[in-house]
Amino acid sequence: MTKQRANVLLIGSGRMGAIRARHMFANPRYHLCGIVDVNKAGAEALAETYNCEAFSTLSEAIERFTVSTEESPGIEEGVTAACDTSVSSVGDDDAPAIAVHAIVISTPTFTHAKLIEEACKYGLAIFTEKPVDETAEKIVDMFEMCRAANVTLACGFQRRFDASYVYVKNQIANDEIGKPLMANIFFADHPCPPVEFLLKGGNIFMDLLCHDADYIRWCLGGDDVASIYATGTSSIPVLEEAGVHDNATVVMKFKKGAVVTLSMSRSASYGYDQRCEIFGEKGLVKVANEHSCTGVLSNSAGIHQTTYKPGFASRFGEAFAAEMDAFADSILDGVEWPVTAEDCIAAQKMADAAIVSCREGRAVEL
Hints:
Layout: E1 6-11, H1 15-26, E2 30-36, H2 40-49, E3 53-55, H3 58-64, E4 66-67, E5 99-100, E6 102-105, H4 112-122, E7 125-129, H5 136-149, E8 153-156, H6 163-173, E9 180-188, H7 195-199, H8 204-219, E10 225-233, H9 237-242, E11 247-254, E12 259-265, E13 273-280, E14 284-287, E15 296-299, E16 302-305, H10 312-315, H11 317-333, H12 341-360, E17 364-365
Parallel strand pairs: 1-2, 1-6, 2-3, 4-5, 6-7, 7-8, 9-12
Antiparallel strand pairs: 9-13, 10-11, 10-17, 11-12, 13-14, 15-16
Helix pairs in contact: 1-11, 4-5, 5-12, 8-12
């Protein structure tokens, strides 16, 4: 019998955690059971907003609730199924019956491995922000661990759930532009993260490259990169002294011949700038930017529009909601998560190679 709601613990109360909480709370197929964060005050504030409990650690939350362990018939091997929520919450005889089915990880990348390992121990399905771990080799280990525990490991790449990006991918798959020959991608963030964040580990290739690396590889039918050349610049002295780039360009040559140029920046003064153009033998298809509103002023001074949307949360709001809905499909109905282990590993290999290329000033072959 298919469960109607997935009982989920959210790990992380920061910017991404708040986005995930909002979309799960608004989705009738989710029951947000609790917020987990080592910053207990942050967890409590977000939990109060969404009328759930706050915890400092995942083990503390697990002790509070029961864990789903019963497999539903018809679920494919390797997919954790929801179970009947027929056992009362631990330690509270008057509490509603709750069995936790999954966790959503929205914490820094270096924390993912420990959380994934703990979730595997309890047989919980896992959704995590990209990347799954800090290197491609570590990501291989994480997927092998989840495979051995028979749990789903779903990594989020929201471009795959955005209507415009999906449209472009489908046009290529339908041969509307013929064989893809080259692509230009531009990714400029807004607002710029604090300098403190960049200094403590805001590697532009680790943070930004994976999104478009996964997307363009998806558009190219899973083709892999043959070589990567990456270079970067630092716009202010404090970043330059620390060896931190806030602007970078990557050139990727794919095995079937396509050449992709990706330019990235930590800050665009005019809003969140996301563009992608893919040129083929028969035509071109692109993702254009979205403005903060559709109003246009035309007068003798010219044609005037508003700035672009103010950040990724507004630009990809519908995609994040669709992504969470797809994870509910995986938990409740056993639907296979569309981003595979191979996809996650390939995207991270591209990021790892870009880091090496930029550091050593040479092209890196994969």
